[in-house]
């Protein structure tokens, strides 16, 4: 993977090589950091790079920092402005992935969340697919349970808690699957290692509710809106049993990385026909038009980066 040229680091844009930390850094030793994942999509007709829902991503990011008792003077608008400046400096004219990161930067020994100094960085790099088989992936139920809200809140995108996702993902892939579905301590469906999950049964789309130890996904929100407004479907947020997954007619993951990834097999069982289903296919089309700024109704979600783009 090619590294970024620049980073927004401690309030200014610096060459990427200058955005460095020491090995004793608190966030590195104890996982006391939070991060985000944002995409920017290149629209070649308009010669414009659109950042998708940056304010919503930065709002969630700042909420995660609050969970870890970090205090920053930045608002989501300040961070969006910093990101636009970074993307202009990088001069990207292609799809990108953006990684905001906040972490305790103190170099000391001691597990805690108080009397520490937070630091903030944003980097961006050209990026394509996160999940290779996004039109038909084969998933399994992980034997690793999702972290509970009273352990490490999944609602916060906390760096240290991603070891939970990493266990699930690696074990699934080493067993020949593309991704893992994680369950709650009570056995209900949670999410993938870095994706929210949706199933469709008898014409109703369902997704676990936000009190089921999931990340409150921005793509999840986007997809619920598109399914209701553009596809006219009923979407229900509720706890989902494992056996409902085996009986689903369609299933897909959502996430900034995964975008809309169809799940066509679970534990060697076909989901519906075992092929990309009609609802998932239509949703993917509407989603990609939306994120590239081609859906008039949702243009407010797409924040332009370049000043000199074509205006149609
Ligand atoms: C655990 C987890 N769930 C869900 C998601 C999807 O969230 P979003 O759509 O905001 O990217 C992600 C990725 O960011 C994630 O890491």
Describe, in plain words, how this protein is organized in 3D.
25% of the residues lie in helices and 29% in strands. By secondary structure, it is of the alpha+beta class. Strands 8, 9, 10, 11, 12, 13, 14, 15 and 16 form a 9-stranded mixed β-sheet that branches. Helix 2 packs across helix 3 (76-90). Bound molecules: pyridoxal-5'-phosphate.
Number of helices: 7
Radius of gyration: 20 Å
Derived structural class? alpha+beta
Binned, the helix content reads: 25-40%
For the termini, the CA-CA separation is: 35 Å
How many distinct beta strands? 17
List the helices and strands and how they pair.
Layout: E1 6-9, E2 12-15, H1 26-30, E3 33-35, E4 38-43, E5 48-52, H2 54-67, H3 76-90, E6 96-104, E7 118-126, E8 137-145, H4 162-174, E9 179-183, E10 189-191, E11 196-201, E12 204-207, H5 218-229, E13 234-237, H6 242-246, E14 250-255, E15 259-266, E16 269-270, H7 278-291, E17 302-304
Parallel strand pairs: 8-9, 8-15, 12-13
Antiparallel strand pairs: 1-2, 1-7, 3-6, 4-5, 4-6, 5-17, 6-7, 9-10, 11-12, 11-14, 14-15, 15-16
Short structural description:
With 312 residues, the chain is an alpha+beta fold. The chain has helices at 26-30, 54-67, 76-90, 162-174, 218-229, 242-246, 278-291, and strands at 6-9, 12-15, 33-35, 38-43, 48-52, 96-104, 118-126, 137-145, 179-183, 189-191, 196-201, 204-207, 234-237, 250-255, 259-266, 269-270, 302-304.
Any descriptors?
nine-stranded mixed beta sheet; 312 residues; binds pyridoxal-5'-phosphate; alpha+beta; eight-stranded antiparallel beta sheet; globular
